[in-house]
Amino acid sequence: MRYLPLTPADRTEMLSAIGADTIDALFADVPAEARLPGPVAGLPAHASEMAVERHMAALAARNLTAGAAPFFLGAGAYRHHIPASVDHLIQRGEFLTAYTPYQPEIAQGTLQVLFEFQTQVARLLGTDIANASMYDGSTACWEAIAMAARITRRKKAVLSGGLHPHYGETVKTMARFTGDAIDARPPRLDAAPDDADVIAAIDGETACVVVQYPDVLGRIPDLALIAAAAQAHGALLVAVVTEPVALGLIEAPGHLGADIVVGEGQSLGVGLQFGGPYLGLFGCREKFVRQMPGRLCGQTVDADGRRGFVLTLSTREQHIRREKATSNICTNSGLCALAFSIHMTLLGGAGLARLAQVNHARAQAAARRLGQVPGVAVLNDVYFNEFTLILPGDARAAVRALADRGVLGGVSLGRLYPGEGGLDRGLLVAVTEMTGDDEIEALATALDDVLQGEPA
Amino acid sequence: MSALNPSGWRPEAGTGESAAALAPTASGDHALALEEPLIFELAAPGDKCGVDLDAPESPPLPGLARFLRAAIAPLPGLTEPEAVRHYTRLSRQNYAIDLGPFPLGSCTMKHNPRLNEKVARLAGFADVHPLQPQQTVQGALGVINELAFWLVTLTGMHGVAMTPKAGAHGELCGLLCIKAAIAARGEDRRVILVPESAHGTNPATAAFAGFAVESIPATAEGRVDLAALTARLGPDVAGVMITNPNTCGLFERDMKAISDAVHAAGGYVYCDGANFNAIVGKVRPGDLGIDAMHINLHKTFSTPHGGGGPGSGPVVLSQALSPFGPLPFTARTADGVVHLIEDTNADVFPQPGAFGRMAAFHGQMGMFTRALAYILSHGADGLRQVAEDAVLNANYVLRRLEDVLDAPFGHSGPCMHEALFSDAGLADGFSTLDIAKGLIDEGFHPMTVYFPLVVHGSMLVEPTETESRAGLDRFIASLRSLAERARAGDASLKSAPHFAPRRRLDETQAARKPVLVWRETVAPA
Amino acid sequence: MTRYFTKDHEWIDVAGDTGTVGITDYAQGQLGDITFVELPAVGTAVGKGDAVAVVDSVKAASDVYTPVSGTVSDVNGALEGEPELVNTDAEVAGWLFRLTLGDPSELAALLDQAAYEAYIAEL
Ligand SMILES: Cc1ncc(COP(=O)(O)O)c(C=O)c1O
């Protein structure tokens, strides 16, 4: 077996060094009836690299890759161009095959990257500080709500209708078990986001208001207004960013009064990967630091007085505080944080701003063209790189019909909100720097055909 | 006060000066030992950029004007050559599996096969959006479904929830299944029992899921005290969380009896499967009566640890708990089509008891492809050999060192995949920390230290099956020499490491005055 | 003023109906460098034995139990910027909180200095 360095002779000699007759003597504590007599039934024997590669490649070939079709999907996962050096660098074995930097003297590489990452994330989100990553945006969103409840000692969260439904469902799942109250609402197909409804729902029991920015339909809520309303009731504003590239163009939530800002970092450096692993971003005000979930890297000095970095404030965490920990998270998204940080370093603030402008300009071109398709209307007045089309009929069926024509045309609201009949004509369309004019034209033409009932 | 520092872990600064301090160079670098500034010290925001982008073809929409960012985010950019150098230089300050043994107990730091990296990067997996119409992602759904099938086969369980993002998230999934199953019976049970030796995520997860946590003691042999556990069972106990093999590296012999007792009292058995590597292909947890167990794909199934993550924590479920798992999940119909079931009233495979979504999208696909390639590469025979070699290597370490290091449970029989030692017998003033830091100078990554908490000054060594005999012998020789030095009170050990990129770091200062982000005003020390 | 101790390593100085609580020098020595102290809110009513404060070192967090019941009347604000006071002067300047005693008869069950010293000598 190519991955197992012990030879049969090693095994025999080692057993005799241990004083065991057979390998099974080492499994003596396992009750005999629980020990399998031979290899697990049903699973084939070992296979060569070539054979496994062939099997996996055959599975991969059964997917329509984003790069092989006109592509317009977003809704929390975005297709951006990743510079070639990112993947090269994250495959350095010293990054790839290390673990959580428990021994700082031999993990300064990972630790310095985390310190740089925390600074980049804080500056991007406009928060004082940020942690070393969560699993993804949706789990970071629940962690923010739980943290707000600890800070305010209240148990109600108000969710905007513009929050990604997967995030909303994740929150509701957790709240059902923890007993937190969730005041959620579905989105309405209006040009304006539901700021007024959210503000009206805040009261003296509210721990936090959770608002996505830009929201799931691509609209942009007025965070400053909502922050002021939250503050008047002693509640916190949790802002959720699922497309961090937007923050190259629109103001950072932390600068608009958000107390906690969480996000999905996948857009920078990580890639689509069918939904995971992704990267949870988590930033907040410095005064809340002892209530934060997750790892934190901090600067210090070594015994020679040289600058160095360590994991710090660990008494918040599960390995020390156990049932009183701020979160149960242990393994996080380290390598995705590295990828994000490298991509961010290649861009810099100015490059990110330019990238955001290009995304927005491309989206305008797409919205203009798609709005000309007969029967199709653009819902949004304002958007960044994603907007909602209103089709004359069921968008879910249209998306399937587009796929039959080789076009990945967007995400239907019917897919995102099964059973919400009032939304089923909505189609989310995302456009990035990757989207060419020819792709926009291909979608417009195919959509026209589909809506006119032309066979594929 | 509650227990005063039960693990005995106290960071201590080293003394004396390092070789680097004794032979200063103008650059600060020492041959291949390279120092590297922060990106914020390498370039100013706006100076340069490593990505070429065309100018935007149009200005922002007028309606966007009131939302625009007042100032560009103050982040420096680097050109590609500078960025490649920055990260490559930083990478060299890390120890990693690729450089040598990384015997971090409980973490299963085994070799990460590069085939798995290759297949995960096939465009058909890497460049696919999670919300594409299902007809366009049959291969991706097929990977999830196939891996799920093998995990069920290997564990002898009934079903599996694939979406949890790491072990701790899997624990949460299992406990939520238990909570949902209890609620479906119209009962309200609030207590989860957790052994003292459990990993911190176990009690933290139980609390996160809204349970009260009570601890159960261990026997002098390092196993769960069955009598104490049975005595505590009752109508308020929802279940137990048992780690098997446990964190002392021992198999819980009474597992079946524990399961039977818990079931008889109306509770469920959660098994922390972080240590599955010891028994994979040899023992099916389903035969031990457990109801839920997470599998860390980043441990047993070799997906890379990435400097802290990502992981993946699928949870295998018993027949009793399967109806209550999370959404979404995959299922194959007779026509060969794999369906992704995202809501409780789906047309096919409706699952009215499902407890809901735990995260956006459908799980850690990038880890699934790697784990599937790993399982197929090893096959049933290879996986069995994995467990046997992992256990053999650990016992070899245990028996070769127990004369110089105290092995608190060495008398209770063979260990499984990890060998546990304590700080008993070290000279006064010498600690586990000193041995760990000494290992760094020897060119190894230290073992897990000060965990589990049930042993003072724990050292938990998990060599894994991917260490060669020669590699193990070298490690053993180093650890033996360190143990002897610490028993003899060799003062030079107190200032180790001497040869690492940094000497011992001042963790007290880091925690008292946290500096968590770079600020222009924070001058480098 | 009389000083009492608990087996959980808290001390309490009692003057009139006010008690001042801290952790013992022995306890701080076991914990190592104190990095942070979490103090209760003034006005909180506490029962004997409740976990009222938390003392963090780098690798441990320990709850501090109040030796007697009462209402928190003051906390040691100096610890916010200088948690190390608990290391350097645990039994005077490193005090944690004051309370107005709820039931002075609870003091009878506590240890005196000699009894506490005898107790830690056994540990
Ligand atoms: C015994 C045990 N349980 C649970 C976990 C948590 O797993 P993860 O880090 O994947 O969340 C770990 C891993 O570190 C572990 O060692």
Structure description:
The complex is a heterotrimer of chains A (456), B (525) and C (123). In chain A, the strands form three sheets. In chain A, strands 1-7-6-5-4-2-3 form a seven-stranded mixed beta sheet, sandwiched between helices. Chain A has a four-stranded antiparallel beta sheet with strand order 10-11-13-12. In chain A, strands 8-9 form a two-stranded antiparallel sheet. Chain A has helices spanning 8-18, 49-60, 84-90, 93-96, 108-125, 137-152, 165-178, 195-201, 223-232, 318-321, 334-370, 395-404, 413-416, 437-451; strands at residues 129-130, 156-159, 181-183, 206-212, 236-241, 260-264, 280-284, 297-301, 307-311, 377-378, 386-390, 411-412, 426-430. In chain A, helix 3 runs antiparallel to helix 11 and helix 8 (195-201) runs parallel beside helix 9 (223-232). Chain A has 456 residues and is an alpha/beta fold. In chain A, 66% of the residues are buried. Chain B has 525 residues and is an alpha/beta fold. In chain B, helix 6 (138-155) runs parallel beside helix 11 (365-401) and helix 7 (167-184) crosses helix 8. In chain C, 20% of the residues lie in helices and 37% in strands. Chain C contains four helices and nine strands. Chain C has helices spanning 25-31, 78-81, 85-88, 113-122, and strands at residues 2-5, 10-15, 18-23, 34-38, 45-46, 51-57, 61-65, 70-75, 97-101. Chain C has a six-stranded antiparallel beta sheet. Chain C has a three-stranded antiparallel beta sheet with strand order 4-6-7. Classes of the chains: A alpha/beta (456), B alpha/beta (525), C alpha+beta (123). Chains in contact: A-B, A-C, B-C. Chains A and B meet through helix 1, helix 2, helix 3, helix 4 and helix 5 of A and helix 3, helix 4, helix 5, helix 6 and helix 7 of B. Pyridoxal-5'-phosphate binds at residues 106-107, 166-168, 199, 201, 243, 247, 272, 274, 296, 311, 313 of chain B.
